[in-house]
Design brief:
3 strands; alpha+beta; MIP18-like; three-stranded mixed sheet; GMP Synthetase, Chain A, domain 3
C-alpha cells in the first residue's frame, strides 16, 4: 500500500488550508475567509481547477491573485497543474465572508 495515498477529503482540506495563506493585498484577509473561492475541483490526472471571484469586476489584482493561488498550491503532491478561473456569477457580496473576515474588517 502506498503510504503517500491520501483520501480526496484530506487533499481538499490541504488545498483549502493552503488557499487560506493567500492574502488579498487590498483587504489583508485571506481569499477563503473573504468568500472568494467558489469551487475547488481536483481531477484524477492531477489538474486542479480553482473557480474564484473578486470583490469587484475589473480588479487590478486578477493576475497577481492567480499567481498567488498557483504558488500556494505548488507543493500539493497530487496537483500537477493549476488553472485559476475567475467567475462573476453569482456576484460576490459581503454575505460570502466568514464571521472572522467580517470582524477583522469591522463589518457587523
Amino acid at each position: 500500500m502506498d503510504e503517500q495515498q491520501r483520501k480526496p477529503q484530506e487533499i481538499k482540506d490541504d488545498i483549502i488550508a493552503r488557499l487560506q495563506t493567500v492574502i488579498d493585498p487590498e483587504l489583508g484577509i485571506d481569499i477563503v475567509n473573504l468568500g472568494l473561492i467558489y469551487n475547488v475541483d481536483l481531477k484524477d490526472d492531477g489538474s486542479c481547477l480553482i473557480e474564484m471571484t473578486l470583490t469587484t469586476i475589473g480588479c487590478p489584482l486578477t493576475n497577481i491573485l492567480a499567481d498567488m493561488v498557483e504558488s500556494a498550491l505548488d507543493d500539493v503532491p497530487e496537483i500537477k497543474d493549476v488553472d485559476v478561473e475567475f467567475i462573476w456569477e453569482p456576484e460576490w457580496t459581503i454575505n460570502r465572508m466568514t464571521r472572522y473576515a467580517k470582524m477583522a474588517l469591522g463589518i457587523h
